[in-house]
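Please, is this right?
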Amino acid sequence: MKSFIGHHQVATDTDYLELALGTPLELWLDEEGESAEERAARLDAARDILADEPELLDRVTRIAAAAIEPHAPTLLHSIGILPRPARVKGRTAVKAVAA
């Protein structure tokens, strides 16, 4: 089964992201082996696009949030933002709250 967004065929996750952003992913991500000059030019181009399309930052933020949302508890625990739940004999401890 083929997927399309508008007239564009979508074959990969990257295709979905690029169509949602309206730009190639390489513009926003570090390129392996790029020189400092190439990186500066890439970032300048990205800044120009954001200046011309201020709503793009909101679209990117929504896409990133949707992508990490299913993994947020694990990510937040792993970097120490949220404490890990206490464990009691292999089970998570639950405190009772008086009504």
Summary: The radius of gyration is 21 Å. The mean pLDDT is 78. The CA atoms of residues 37 and 64 lie 27 Å apart.
